[in-house]
C-alpha cells in the first residue's frame, strides 16, 4: 500500500458503534461486506468494543445495508475532544469594597480582564472578592473599578490589624502570689495563738508572756 494511500485512509477514517453483533463470525462477515462498499478503502471491526473503523466514505444507510443479514444498527461515534489542561499561574485574591449591584461587579470583572498581564479574572459578588490570574497592581485594579470608585485590598492584607487586636484584647496574665505571702496575716495570727496556748501550758495562765500572746 502506497504512502499516499495510507495518508488518505488516515484522513478519512470514521468510527461507528455497531449494535446487534451475535458472534465474532458475524462481525467478520459485516467487515467483509463493508469493504465492498464503493468509496471504502478498508474497514476494521472491533468485536469486543462493538465498533468498526471505516477508512473512506460510507453512509450509515450503506453500513446498515452491509449488516442487514443480522439487522445491525450503526451510529457514528462522536469524536472525543481532547481538552488540554490549562495551567494559570499567579492567582491572587482581592477584597473589593463598593459593589452596588451584580451588573457593576460584572463590568468590573470585564475591565480587569482587559488589563495587560491579566489572563483571567473571576468576581465573587456575594463574597465581595475577585480572583485575578496574572499580574496586576492594586492601582490598575482600582482604575478598572473607577466607574464605581471601588477599593481593592489584597486578601492577605485585608485585615492587618486583626492579629494585633487579638493580642491587645488578651487578658493580662495574673501574677501568681505564693500562698504564704497571700495569707501571711492569717498564718501569723495562727502562730501567735499556738504560742499562747504553749506558754499557758508551760508558764501558766497568769504569766506575762501568755497574756501578751493572747
UniProtKB/TrEMBL annotation:
<feature type="domain" description="HMA">
    <location>
        <begin position="90"/>
        <end position="153"/>
    </location>
</feature>
<dbReference type="GO" id="GO:0016020">
    <property type="term" value="C:membrane"/>
</dbReference>
<dbReference type="InterPro" id="IPR027256">
    <property type="entry name" value="P-typ_ATPase_IB"/>
</dbReference>
<dbReference type="GO" id="GO:0046872">
    <property type="term" value="F:metal ion binding"/>
</dbReference>
<dbReference type="GO" id="GO:0019829">
    <property type="term" value="F:ATPase-coupled monoatomic cation transmembrane transporter activity"/>
</dbReference>
<dbReference type="Pfam" id="PF00403">
    <property type="entry name" value="HMA"/>
</dbReference>
<keyword id="KW-0479">Metal-binding</keyword>
<keyword id="KW-1133">Transmembrane helix</keyword>
<keyword id="KW-0472">Membrane</keyword>
<feature type="domain" description="HMA">
    <location>
        <begin position="12"/>
        <end position="75"/>
    </location>
</feature>
<feature type="transmembrane region" description="Helical">
    <location>
        <begin position="185"/>
        <end position="202"/>
    </location>
</feature>
<dbReference type="InterPro" id="IPR017969">
    <property type="entry name" value="Heavy-metal-associated_CS"/>
</dbReference>
<protein>
    <submittedName>
        <fullName>Heavy metal translocating P-type ATPase</fullName>
    </submittedName>
</protein>
<keyword id="KW-1278">Translocase</keyword>
<keyword id="KW-0812">Transmembrane</keyword>
<dbReference type="InterPro" id="IPR036163">
    <property type="entry name" value="HMA_dom_sf"/>
</dbReference>
<dbReference type="InterPro" id="IPR006121">
    <property type="entry name" value="HMA_dom"/>
</dbReference>
Amino acid at each position: 500500500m502506497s504512502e499516499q494511500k495510507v495518508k488518505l485512509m488516515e484522513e478519512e477514517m470514521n468510527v461507528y458503534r455497531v449494535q446487534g453483533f451475535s458472534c465474532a463470525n458475524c462481525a467478520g462477515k459485516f467487515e467483509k461486506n463493508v469493504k465492498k462498499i464503493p468509496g471504502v478503502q478498508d474497514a476494521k471491526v472491533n468485536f469486543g468494543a462493538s465498533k468498526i473503523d471505516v477508512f473512506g466514505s460510507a453512509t450509515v444507510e450503506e453500513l446498515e445495508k452491509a449488516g442487514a443479514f443480522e439487522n445491525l444498527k450503526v451510529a457514528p461515534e462522536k469524536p472525543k475532544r481532547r481538552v488540554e489542561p490549562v495551567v494559570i499561574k499567579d492567582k491572587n485574591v482581592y477584597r473589593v469594597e463598593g459593589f452596588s449591584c451584580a451588573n457593576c461587579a460584572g463590568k468590573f470583572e470585564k475591565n480587569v480582564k482587559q488589563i495587560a498581564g491579566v489572563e483571567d479574572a473571576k468576581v465573587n459578588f456575594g463574597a465581595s472578592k475577585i480572583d485575578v490570574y496574572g499580574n496586576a497592581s492594586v492601582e490598575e485594579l482600582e482604575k478598572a473599578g473607577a466607574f464605581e470608585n471601588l477599593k481593592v485590598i489584597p486578601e492577605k492584607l485585608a485585615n492587618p490589624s486583626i492579629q494585633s487586636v487579638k493580642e491587645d484584647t488578651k487578658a493580662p496574665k495574673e501574677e501568681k502570689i505564693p500562698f504564704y505571702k497571700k495569707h501571711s496575716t492569717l498564718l501569723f495570727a495562727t502562730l501567735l495563738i499556738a504560742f499562747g496556748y504553749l506558754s499557758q501550758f508551760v508558764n501558766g495562765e497568769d504569766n506575762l508572756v501568755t497574756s501578751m500572746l493572747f
